[in-house]
Design goal:
heterotrimer; A mainly alpha (377); B mainly alpha (355); C alpha/beta (296); A: 377 residues; mainly alpha; MetI-like fold; 2 domains; two-stranded antiparallel sheet; 14 helices; 2 strands; C: 296 residues; alpha/beta; Rossmann fold; 12 helices
């Protein structure tokens, strides 16, 4: 209808190019009125546009699928639901096995730090009398993960910025390949390298930190000195492990910074850093946070690498330079060797807590990342 | 005033890039790097600061200060700050790449000493980890790894691909929850997967350790990788292909099985390879579920089984220098496998869709 | 009333179009002549000498030489794809961001080549500002922060921020509409308002030249009119170069016009001169064909 009126306007001798923009809808009575007037007053031959007949109701389109397709859908849906089933089963079985421990220990499971099973007279483990507490391990998990994020995320984000905004394409391809390869390294490799190569270096750094900063409580050494295999070193190895993940995700996000804002910043006379600070960071902020949380989830669940570089001690330890600590995953691995079948149930409870924790962190992280990175499912 | 009609010289002019760094600029940058290195050496020699840390830390600090000052003198504060951050980001990427270099270097350095031909022909029946390195081998570990991985692949690939097919082809009403759950599953710690199989299969049912149980746990870890990568690959297949299949009167399953999946062939192989790379080095579930052995065992359903990660793990725990060397040799072989898989995935991934 | 059905009348209509354009631009020339005395002359101005541009192998622009006198508005007209925007981007060194870009020739600002080695490109962009086709205010900043963004980006210190804020928004014709909501977000304005905000933002760094790449093509006629008014007011203190597809707009706002054309090869500048001459007495046949609407 708008086109019709425009055409009429031209026909009445108004200049080409001086456009008339009508935005009447079909239901506008005014539009119809103008149309009628226009038809009467303009001596041009034009097609009279009429309102259409009553619009029919939409038909419902159905199809009867073939039997083979029904089977196909069933099989595929079943396969698709497998992840639901598996996660559900994990939850069920761990809860079932860990139930006795949690019931008997109660809140003590989360507040106590001792891990010692007491066998009752009948040969079975007395879950009430035993001490199963993961407080030290939970705190240790958080401390190591925190140190990993502290060192790993800034380096990873800065590397991502370099790759997105500064790197010439040959260097970029090489660096991306190397970083992706690093993401594929098995954790036992990090465990070995961490123990033999990083630990001595980390001890050296820890001694330096202790020498100059031991006025800060967490850098003090209450006993020892034991610098070897401390939460600090575990945090370092975890930092190295999470750098590839955070770099990859951050790179994807920075690459999507809207070009028009980037150009606006440059056109105003901004340097590259000014553009990054004022345009790229605000845009990428939430996505990078999501990537960090994914890395956090990985760091919290890491088993073997932490096992080799952290001396497990069943006591909460805030002194990060002291060689004592642990995280839930490596504790489970350590205890498993000596545990009887019944004692393993207590480990199941610990595993349940770890499962819940990583599930929550990862879910939040995925929600954040999905919202900001387009193109992900 | 009258207008001017312009005669243009079109040819004979060469394209230039006057904004690219000139030789003078490149030379200046290089000079600043050298200056920073010199300062680093001098300060380390003169002050009590020592060690590799001192060299690197002073070098980086000097480089940052020099770049900032030089640019600031030339163009002002904004340029100085810009230069500072440019150098900072370059330092960051160097720090990121350094561990990889160190790892590869150390694996070779410490591992190749443990390499000998009989590694691939003997097992540890007549030896143990503390014996000198030439005795015993890890063929049982390699065979074990291959068997366990193979079974994990057989379990996880169909499930992973079916999940991807559900998400891209059927797009049913469970799509969003399933996509979310697949992502959630990729975050499950490996030790939790191990505990789960213990609780679900070992304790109630079989009551002993074998290779198959390890495979199932590894499959749980592999499914999300296969599903996610397959899904990305299937999404790249153009809609026309599917429509062509349906327009010819084919059922949906024929269209998917005979047209879409073959078109995505190389991408699906990439997904499988990436999944294998993910689990080939997983230690925790193996330690929990497969038991470990000194001899070759090709039956995954009965008897404990050795595998490469477990072999390395045992070497590490044994504590003697010979044991450590065996462990490094084992990781050298494992890393070689990972690199081959990675290169294979890269090669397949670079092929165009439909080939 | 003209009968639109006959062939001959089409030609009459086109002549009527051109003479209309010519008369519009003649009116403007008169108005400018009246207001010109007292215009400050800022610097020597912007000159392009033999500018070529490439995208990788493709030769996109060939041998453009053009002078932009201080205090004038120059319109670059021509059909799509003949290098007008590319040329514009060589004037403030934004062309080099495209991977594979190359150029030849010189662009002189106040007598100095902006492509000379060792030039601080950010300083050039402070003097030669740009307004883009699609308004792009920074969404994470308020209106006030948007206007002053240029200062923040270039790390310029200024004594009285509020004074500058009001001045730039007034010159851009936006002050009255936003003076009560300076703390609102930049994205909350209408398209035309956003574009004027972008103009205010470019003015805050006190450019000598303002480049405008089809600034009204994404806007409605009401906003277009407001922006053209803004351009007229600005032209006494800022040299303006505007790329436009709209010939009436070129006739309304510009003092000089340059016509670009490509025959499938690189874009070239065919003819340049005072606007009313280009529209009423173009010398080149191709120019005449374009301004009379035979193609384009």
């Amino acid at each position: 209808m708008a086109q019709g009126l425009d055409w009429m306007a031209r026909g009445c001798g108004l200049e080409a190019g001086v456009g008339f923009h009508f935005s009447f809808t079909w239901s506008s009575p005014i539009g119809f009125f103008v149309l009628l007037i226009g038809v009467n007053h303009c001596p041009v031959s034009s097609t009279v546009i009429q309102t259409p007949p009553v619009i029919p109701a939409k038909r419902e389109i159905t199809t009867k699928p073939r039997f083979s397709d029904k089977v196909f859908r069933g099989v595929v849906t079943g396969g698709g639901l497998s992840s639901l089933i598996i996660l559900g089963l994990i939850l069920i079985f761990l809860s079932y096995e860990g139930f006795d421990t949690l019931k008997a220990q109660g809140i003590h499971f989360f507040t106590g730090s001792k891990w010692q099973s007491v066998t009752a007279a009948n040969g079975h483990v007395d879950f009430k009398a035993s001490h199963f507490g993961i407080a030290a391990m939970l705190i240790g998990t958080l401390i190591c993960a925190f140190i990993a994020i502290l060192f790993g995320v800034p380096i990873a984000v800065m590397s991502a910025i370099f790759l997105t905004f500064y790197a010439p394409s040959a260097i970029k391809k090489l660096a991306v390949t190397v970083i992706d390869l690093m993401a594929a390294f098995p954790s036992i490799l990090f465990g070995l390298w961490g123990y033999f190569v990083l630990d001595p270096i980390g001890v050296y750094w820890a001694k330096l930190i202790h020498k100059y900063f031991n006025w800060i409580p967490i850098f003090q050494m209450p006993s020892g000195p034991y610098f070897d295999r401390s939460p600090f070193i575990a945090g370092l190895i975890l930092a190295v492990m999470i750098i590839p993940i955070v770099t990859s995700i951050s790179r994807e996000i920075f690459a999507q910074t809207p070009l028009d804002r980037v150009q606006a910043a440059y056109a105003l006379g901004g340097t590259k850093w000014a553009m990054i600070k004022n345009v790229a960071f605000p845009y990428a902020r939430s996505g990078v946070v999501g990537g960090t949380m994914l890395a956090l989830g990985r760091a919290m669940g890491e088993t073997v690498a932490v096992y080799t570089v952290l001396n497990i001690v069943y006591q909460i330890n805030w002194h990060v330079l002291l060689g004592a600590g642990g995280n839930v995953a490596s504790m489970i691995l350590l205890q498993f060797g000596d545990a009887s079948t019944e004692e393993v149930k207590a480990l199941m409870a610990a595993g349940l807590v770890l499962f819940a924790l990583t599930l929550v962190v990862n879910s939040i992280a995925n929600l954040i990342v999905n919202r900001t990175v387009k193109g992900r499912a | 005033m009258s207008t001017n009609v312009v005669e243009n010289k079109v040819c004979d002019v060469k394209p230039q890039t006057p904004w690219a760094p000139s030789n003078k600029q490149r030379f200046t940058t290089f000079g600043l790097v050298v200056a920073a290195a010199v300062i680093s050496f001098v300060l380390v020699g003169v002050t009590p600061m020592k060690g590799k840390l001192a060299y690197f830390a002073i070098f980086f600090a000097a480089l940052l200060i020099l770049d900032y000052t030089f640019s600031r003198m030339q163009f002002g504060k904004a340029a100085g700050v810009d230069s500072f951050f440019r150098t900072l980001f370059t330092i960051a990427i160097t720090i990121t790449v350094l561990p990889v270099v160190s790892i590869l270097w150390n694996v070779w350095l410490r591992g190749h000493k443990g390499l000998h031909w009989s590694l691939f022909t003997t097992d540890m029946k007549q030896s143990d980890f503390t014996q000198p390195v030439g005795s015993g081998g890890l063929i049982h570990a390699i065979i074990g790894t291959l068997i366990i991985i193979a079974i994990a692949v057989i379990i996880s690939v169909p499930i992973g691909i079916l999940t991807a097919v559900y998400l891209t082809e059927i797009k049913g009403r469970f799509s969003r929850p399933i996509a979310f759950l697949v992502q959630a599953m990729s975050g499950v710690p490996s030790i939790v997967a191990g505990l789960f199989i213990l609780a679900a299969i070992v304790y109630p049912l079989t009551k002993h350790f074998n290779g198959f149980e390890g495979s199932i746990a590894l499959a749980i870890l592999m499914i999300p990788t296969v599903a996610r990568t397959s899904e990305e690959v299937l999404r790249l297949i153009p809609e026309d292909l599917r429509e062509a299949g349906l327009a010819l009167g084919g059922t949906q399953w024929r269209s998917v099985a005979l047209i879409v999946l073959p078109a995505a062939r190389s991408g699906l192989f990439t997904a499988i390879i990436l999944g294998v790379a993910r689990i080939i080095g997983e230690t925790a579930p193996i330690v929990l579920l497969t038991g470990g052995a000194n001899v070759i065992n090709i039956n995954p359903f009965s008897g404990t089984m050795e595998s490469l990660p477990l072999y390395i793990w045992s070497g590490l725990l044994s504590g003697t220098p010979e044991a450590f060397t065996r462990a490094w040799a084992g990781i050298l072989i494992l890393l070689a496998l990972v690199i081959v898989l990675f290169a294979g995935a890269r090669y397949l991934g670079s092929k165009k869709v439909g080939k | 009333m003209v009968d639109s059905t006959s062939e001959g009348n089409e030609k009459e209509m086109q002549t009527a179009n051109t003479s209309n354009l010519a008369s519009v631009s003649a009116q403007r020339a008169e108005k400018m002549a009246q207001s010109k005395p007292g215009t400050q002359v800022m610097g020597v101005g912007l000159e392009a000498r033999g500018v070529h541009a490439w995208f990788g192998e493709k030769h996109a622009l060939a041998d453009v030489s053009l002078d932009f006198w201080p205090g004038t508005v120059t319109a670059l007209i021509g059909p799509s794809g003949c290098g007008k925007s590319t040329f514009l981007r060589t004037l403030n060194r934004m062309h080099e961001f495209i991977p594979g870009a190359a150029m030849a020739g010189e662009v002189l600002l106040n007598g100095e080549d902006i492509y000379a080695p060792g030039t601080d490109v950010t300083k050039i962009r402070l003097k030669v500002g740009m307004v883009f086709q699609k308004p792009n205010p920074f969404p994470s900043m308020t209106i006030e922060e948007n206007v002053l963004a240029g200062l923040k980006l270039a790390q310029l210190k200024i004594e009285n921020k509020d004074e500058l804020l009001e001045e730039c928004l007034t010159r851009a014709g936006l002050w009255n509409e936003v003076k009560d909501r300076l703390k609102a977000h930049g994205g909350a304005l209408s398209g035309g308002q956003q574009q004027r905000l972008c103009i205010a933002r470019s003015l805050a760094v006190r450019p000598q030249v303002l480049l405008m790449d089809e600034p009204c093509s994404a806007l409605d006629p009401g906003s277009t009119l407001k922006i053209e008014e803004t351009i007229s007011h600005l032209s006494s203190s800022v040299t303006i170069v505007i790329v436009t597809h709209n010939m009436q707009q070129a006739a309304r706002v510009s003092d000089n016009t340059a016509f670009f054309l490509s025959d499938g090869g690189p874009g070239q500048m065919i003819e340049t001169g005072p606007t009313n001459e280009i529209f009423s007495r173009p010398k080149d046949q191709r120019t005449e064909n374009y301004v009379t609407g035979r193609f384009g």
